[in-house]
Automatic annotation (TrEMBL):
Pfam families reported for this sequence: Lactamase_B
Highest classification ranks of the organism: Bacteria, Pseudomonadati, Pseudomonadota, Betaproteobacteria, Burkholderiales
Residues covered by the Metallo-beta-lactamase domain: 35-244
UniProt GO molecular function: acyl-L-homoserine-lactone lactonohydrolase activity; metal ion binding
Keyword hit for Transcription: no
SUPFAM superfamilies to which the protein is assigned, alphabetical: Metallo-hydrolase/oxidoreductase
Top-tier EC class: hydrolase
Cofactor(s) required for function per UniProt: Zn(2+)
Protein name: N-acyl homoserine lactonase
Similarity comment: Belongs to the metallo-beta-lactamase superfamily.
E.C. numbers: 3.1.1.81
InterPro entries assigned to the protein according to its UniProt record, in alphabetical order: MBL_superfamily_lactonases (IPR051013), Metallo-B-lactamas (IPR001279), RibonucZ/Hydroxyglut_hydro (IPR036866)
Record key words, sorted: Hydrolase, Metal-binding, Zinc
Length: 260
């Protein structure tokens, strides 16, 4: 039986970029607005944070912004992020602080998913071993080395496992070497699959389109992961939540009946 009590999506920033970054070989020249989301999962055994968004200081400080986002090697333009969207401020609005987080689950270590690790550095950090290895080897430019080079309490695994009863990791490589999604059994209603960047948009799921960036150009792995999520959703009656879909985010923001 699930021990999940509540689930909150947290809007940590907004990003505007070329659509082909989310849909491989589609939408070139078309800009889209994309939410950068994290999720807080409260269980009877503790609290789990899936992803942590960007490092706020790299965006807010002009010198750091220039270094990370306005140089020739920058992977993407800087996201739009305000002070209120930092993870500690989201937690404070829920009556919590970073020390109340027991596990941080990082789907992958790109800057828009792992940059906020500096805000929750006292928690256990779960990440796939292949992901940490690829990130440290700078597999692509979206890894900012100092986002994950601190004195963190890494808990690496390769097999799928239950983080808590009702919360299970799903290995979904393709976008990155060790990408992980998360299956969550809610206390009522349908389970939820947090796709992470295995599926940025609903279009990735419906049309089985790989993300624009694939580890070692392994589009085949990315498509296998999308199909794996769809099969799991069909098997368990789950709903797949894409990670950077503005229209989907608006549906979450309007009526979160699943989080109470």
């Amino acid at each position: 039986m699930t021990q999940v009590l509540r689930l909150w999506p947290l809007l940590s920033a907004m990003h505007r970029y070329d659509k082909s970054i989310s849909t491989r070989n589609r939408g070139i020249g078309t800009d889209i607005d994309a939410p950068i989301l994290a999720y807080l999962i409260e269980t009877r055994n503790g609290r789990i944070l899936y992803d942590v968004g960007c490092d706020y200081l790299k965006i807010a400080d002009p010198a750091l912004r220039k270094r990370y986002y306005e140089c020739g090697a920058a992977p993407m333009p800087a996201p739009q992020m305000i002070e209120e969207q930092r993870i500690p401020n989201h937690l404070a609005r829920l009556g919590l602080q970073p020390s109340d987080i027991d596990v941080v689950m990082i789907g992958h270590l790109h800057f828009d998913h792992a940059g906020g690790l500096c805000e929750v550095c006292g928690s256990d950090i779960h990440v796939h071993a292949d992901e940490l290895e690829a990130a440290r080897a700078q597999a692509d430019l979206a890894y900012f080395q100092d986002d994950f080079s601190g004195d963190y309490r890494w808990r690496t695994q390769r097999d799928e496992y239950d983080v808590a009863p009702g919360v299970r990791t799903i290995n979904t490589p393709g976008h990155t070497a060790g990408h992980m999604s998360l299956w969550i059994e809610l206390p009522r209603g349908r389970p939820v699959i947090l796709a992470g960047d295995a599926a940025d948009l609903t279009e990735n799921i419906d049309d089985e389109v790989a993300p624009g960036v694939c580890w070692n150009d392994r589009e085949d792995l990315a498509l296998m992961s999308i199909r794996k999520l769809k099969a799991l959703a069909a098997q368990t009656g789950a709903t797949i939540w894409p990670n950077h879909d503005i229209a989907f985010w608006h549906t979450l923001a309007r009526g979160p009946a699943w989080c109470a």
